[in-house]
């Protein structure tokens, strides 16, 4: 319940507002009444109030002065003004005090109900954002965010070793790179201007300023699931975007970056104008190219630094840009299918998808360099899907892969080589788990499932499970997918989502609490995964489940 104070000098009107409105059903409780602004301010010092409903014209102190002083002393308080005066000046002043609404007397009861219904929804959204930021800060203080930042920065810096066991690593950090369009971006503020602001406002405390950055960015991103960021320094913020569709990327990425930049500037830089520019690299169909996109984002800033109104600079570099855009445009979806088929040891599907891929590439009549680049990208994708990429894959493909691709004279020659090595790799993966009897395999997987169920609410890693069943991590990972048809990560997530569905409908726990109860450290990551799994947000699923339960009771 939100706590409401009613300030009105006319006793009959005040009592009518307090007694005739079903406040509790609206989500409010009247905790105080007052006949003028001065008395109201005295009460505010003693009583916690979330919403102030005040008349304008009152003795001793009117509603405008009360609103102004209440806003200064209690920045989070919501204000609704009642007035018999329709003059523009009163409305203008009300806006300057960030009042939620300005209602003319005699106020219509339906209008008052509608206003407080809308206010409740607005306050609920703000409360959820605050809770998210609060739990994000706990998450940050626990050092978990530091691990994420190090991983992201290494990825942007081009550390290809991160793509070994990529799915395991990202799952353990509660990060999701399952999109199809990946781009890096950076926001660069003018360092000298910020230093002036630091001296005057932040006492040269860069840590406090970067902490403020994170709070603002978290609030801006509360409804956007497809982005990660690093506050590199007090003048630089880097981003990784991963969208499921090009349309979503085009619609959200630039507006998101502009909104973050403007919010930081308007909220934090009070005494000076701080120029900034936004650099955006090209979008790629694989996360493996994110370091290249990041280099482009930084280049776009270096080449076009602080150009007046042109604050957003998307990478362009004549021939290279055209080449990269063609690479993205003709990206064959079969590459992803090939990587999955190989990781499953399915050599027949591997051959089928590769033949379809080369057929498509030949029809496009692309530059040889682009086709060869796809082959290198394919190797990286396969490497990230196979847990033991330094063992089986290197033994079959070896160091000569890149050299052969580079020197291939015809697409026919290239296709024959790629199909041969990739099919051989898929067959080898399939044979690594052939010697074990099916019954024994099933017993091991059942033992692993029992372990997962016991420790579902905790952080479960591949090492923990594989040690429990006395297998190597690589072997267990292959075996689990071979027997069950899904990865152990997907299996754990499925169990957690099923438990989350029960808790959402049958308990009143907050969403972040449910996330903690089923083993997620990051409440936002849980919400994103839940929506992907159920096609509803946790809140939407809870509301729908309870409506259905009520309908069944009525029947």
From TrEMBL:
<protein>
    <recommendedName>
        <fullName>Stage 0 sporulation protein A homolog</fullName>
    </recommendedName>
</protein>
<feature type="domain" description="HTH araC/xylS-type">
    <location>
        <begin position="446"/>
        <end position="544"/>
    </location>
</feature>
<keyword id="KW-0597">Phosphoprotein</keyword>
<feature type="domain" description="Response regulatory">
    <location>
        <begin position="3"/>
        <end position="120"/>
    </location>
</feature>
<dbReference type="InterPro" id="IPR051552">
    <property type="entry name" value="HptR"/>
</dbReference>
<comment type="function">
    <text>May play the central regulatory role in sporulation. It may be an element of the effector pathway responsible for the activation of sporulation genes in response to nutritional stress. Spo0A may act in concert with spo0H (a sigma factor) to control the expression of some genes that are critical to the sporulation process.</text>
</comment>
<keyword id="KW-0963">Cytoplasm</keyword>
<dbReference type="InterPro" id="IPR018060">
    <property type="entry name" value="HTH_AraC"/>
</dbReference>
<dbReference type="InterPro" id="IPR020449">
    <property type="entry name" value="Tscrpt_reg_AraC-type_HTH"/>
</dbReference>
<dbReference type="InterPro" id="IPR001789">
    <property type="entry name" value="Sig_transdc_resp-reg_receiver"/>
</dbReference>
<keyword id="KW-0805">Transcription regulation</keyword>
<keyword id="KW-0804">Transcription</keyword>
<keyword id="KW-0238">DNA-binding</keyword>
<feature type="modified residue" description="4-aspartylphosphate">
    <location>
        <position position="55"/>
    </location>
</feature>
<dbReference type="Pfam" id="PF12833">
    <property type="entry name" value="HTH_18"/>
</dbReference>
<dbReference type="InterPro" id="IPR018062">
    <property type="entry name" value="HTH_AraC-typ_CS"/>
</dbReference>
<keyword id="KW-0902">Two-component regulatory system</keyword>
<dbReference type="Pfam" id="PF00072">
    <property type="entry name" value="Response_reg"/>
</dbReference>
<dbReference type="InterPro" id="IPR011006">
    <property type="entry name" value="CheY-like_superfamily"/>
</dbReference>
<dbReference type="InterPro" id="IPR009057">
    <property type="entry name" value="Homeodomain-like_sf"/>
</dbReference>
């Amino acid at each position: 319940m939100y706590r409401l104070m009613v300030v009105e000098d006319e006793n009959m009107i005040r009592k009518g507002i307090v007694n005739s409105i079903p406040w509790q059903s609206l989500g409010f409780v009247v905790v105080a009444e007052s006949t003028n602004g001065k008395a109201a301010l005295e009460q505010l010092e003693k009583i916690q109030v979330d919403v102030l409903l005040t008349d304008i014209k009152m003795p001793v102190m009117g509603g405008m002065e009360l609103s102004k002083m209440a806003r200064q002393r209690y920045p989070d308080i919501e204000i609704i003004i009642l007035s018999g005066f329709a003059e523009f000046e009163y409305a203008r002043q009300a806006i300057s005090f960030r009042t939620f609404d300005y209602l003319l007397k005699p106020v219509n009861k339906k209008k008052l109900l509608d206003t407080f219904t809308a206010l409740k929804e607005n306050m609920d959204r703000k409360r959820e954002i605050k809770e998210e930021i609060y739990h994000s800060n706990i998450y940050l203080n626990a050092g978990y965010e530091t691990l994420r930042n190090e991983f992201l920065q290494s990825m942007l810096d081009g550390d290809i070793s991160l793509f070994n066991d990529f799915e395991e690593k990202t799952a353990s950090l509660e990060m999701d790179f399952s999109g199809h369009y990946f781009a890096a971006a950076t926001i660069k503020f003018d360092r000298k201007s910020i230093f002036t602001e630091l001296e005057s406002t932040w006492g040269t405390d860069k840590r406090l300023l970067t902490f403020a950055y994170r709070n603002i960015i978290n609030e801006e991103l509360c409804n956007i699931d497809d982005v990660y960021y690093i506050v590199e320094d007090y003048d630089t913020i880097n981003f990784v975007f991963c969208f499921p569709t090009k349309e979503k990327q085009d619609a959200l990425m630039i507006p998101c970056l502009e909104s973050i930049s403007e919010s930081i500037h308007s909220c934090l830089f009070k005494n000076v104008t701080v120029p900034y520019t936004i650099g955006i690299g090209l979008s790629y169909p694989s996360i493996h190219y994110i370091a290249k996109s990041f280099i482009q984002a930084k280049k776009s800033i270096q080449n076009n630094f602080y150009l007046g109104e042109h604050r957003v600079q998307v990478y362009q570099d004549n021939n290279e840009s055209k080449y990269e855009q063609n690479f993205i445009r003709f990206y064959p979806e079969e590459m992803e299918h090939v990587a999955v088929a190989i990781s499953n040891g399915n050599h027949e599907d591997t051959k089928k998808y590769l033949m379809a891929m080369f057929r498509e590439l030949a029809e496009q009549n692309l530059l040889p360099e682009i086709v060869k680049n796809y082959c290198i990208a394919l190797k990286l994708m396969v490497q990230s899907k196979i847990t033991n990429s330094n063992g089986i894959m290197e033994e079959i493909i070896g160091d000569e892969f890149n050299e052969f691709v580079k020197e291939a004279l015809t697409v026919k020659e290239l296709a024959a080589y790629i199909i041969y090595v990739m099919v051989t790799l898929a067959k080898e993966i399939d044979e690594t788990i052939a010697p074990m009897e099916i019954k024994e395999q099933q017993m091991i997987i059942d033992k692993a499932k029992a372990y997962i169920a016991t420790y579902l609410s905790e952080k479960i890693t591949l090492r923990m499970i594989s040690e429990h069943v006395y297998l190597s991590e690589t072997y267990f990972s292959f075996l689990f997918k071979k027997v069950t048809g899904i990865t152990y990560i997907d299996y754990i997530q499925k169990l957690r989502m099923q438990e989350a569905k029960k808790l959402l409908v049958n308990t009143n726990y907050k969403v972040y609490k449910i996330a903690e109860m089923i083993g997620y450290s990051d409440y936002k990551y849980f919400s994103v995964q839940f929506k992907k799994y159920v096609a509803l947000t946790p809140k939407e699923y809870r509301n729908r489940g309870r409506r259905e339960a009520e309908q069944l009771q009525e029947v």
